Amino acid sequence: MAALSPDLPDELVHEILFRLPPDEPACLVCLSVVSKPWRCLLSDPAFHHHYRKFHQTPPMLGFLYNSSHVDELFLAQFVPTTGSCPPCTLDPQLSDLAVCFCREGRVLLDYGDMHMKFVVWNPMTGRQREIRYPNDPSFYIGTAVLCAVDGCDHATCHEGPFHVVFVGGDALEGIATAYLYSSETGEWSTPTYEIDLVDDSFGELGLIDGSCYLEVMHSVLVGETLHFLFKGGRQGARVLKYDMGRHCLSVINPPAAATVHGQGNILMALEDGSLGIAHLDKLMLHLWSREAGPDRVAAWTQHRAIDLRSFIHIGDPTIKVVLIGSMEGAYIIFTTTSVGIYAIDLKSLQSRKLCERQNVQSLFPFMSFYYPPGIVTLILDLQRLS
């Protein structure tokens, strides 16, 4: 293969390219058209493996949310968060779907109760896969799509095998069950054992008198367990924990102070591998983590309280500040105010305005290393030939 540069050894060019910022995908786009050797390098799976290993965490290229429309329909929308982010437009066939999860470059979309099926969509390749619900739940709690490859670094696994987790409930019985789908077999597992969503009686859930409402929130993965925030009824917020290894569901009660959900509670997958939860009391942000004590019994511990007025623009004080999401593996949360949507880094206590104010209840960050147009196809072709 021809040299990448007439003046620099290829090894040094590689080291320079490894240091290109992953949150500025236009750099890769421009370099991929310099010459055939550069395009071949940028299409090499080994390069992307080392690029991913060098940067470790994929950048946030944008976020998805569901915009409310007539007839209570919720339609998926994408908002780029980098100036050079390529367009990420939904396929016209997916324009009437709602987003319910995204992770590792895959987006899970829902057709809704009428069709009872999902679509796993890869924005980088445009590929889609439809999956029918495992059953007919009377109410929906949460779902997720995850890479199914053990030990994967998620650098080039966009087209690899995946799992879908579905948690649904039965309103007549006040119970919940979970299912696990495998893309390799094309089948759902048997359901988990049923768990009760109420303590004393079905009336506690609030599905009879209408006091219950459910929100689709971004679930978080901690180790091999997924956590879903279940909001509704007189019991307030609760956490449903799905253990993928043991295929079982359980309930975790959040801190008592976080059971009131008027300004939104969010789950967090913290950098130390623990489960976190954040909630607002007016403009005071309270952060909790769930840790095991000396007796190995897990309990909630409040470790910080932060006044948001010092580093985000609140605007109209009559409009509530609401928590709408978090970024896995980082101390970053998302909130909406009267003037816009903000990302808040809880380590540096710095904030960044992502866009003007939108009617967003839940924000789903889209995190992925970007591949220039045509490079994904080349990667897949090379993998088939190898």
Topology at a glance:
Elements: H1 10-18, H2 26-31, H3 36-42, H4 45-55, E1 60-68, E2 74-80, E3 98-103, E4 106-110, E5 117-121, E6 128-132, E7 139-147, E8 162-170, E9 175-182, E10 187-188, E11 195-196, E12 220-222, E13 225-231, E14 237-243, E15 248-252, E16 265-269, E17 275-281, E18 284-292, E19 298-307, E20 322-327, E21 332-336, E22 340-345, E23 350-356, E24 364-367, H5 375-385
Antiparallel strand pairs: 1-2, 1-24, 3-4, 4-5, 5-6, 7-8, 8-9, 9-10, 9-11, 12-13, 13-14, 14-15, 16-17, 17-18, 18-19, 20-21, 21-22, 22-23
Order of helices and strands: HHHHEEEEEEEEEEEEEEEEEEEEEEEEH
Counted beta strands: 24
Gross geometry: globular
Low-confidence stretches: 200-213, 373-386
* Helical/strand content category: mainly beta
Summarize the biggest pleated sheet: 5 strands, antiparallel
Please give the alpha-carbon distance between the first and last residues. 18 Å
Strand content: 35-45%
Helix content: 10-25%
Secondary structure tally, helices: 5
C-alpha Rg (nearest Å)? 22 Å
Mean pLDDT comes to 78
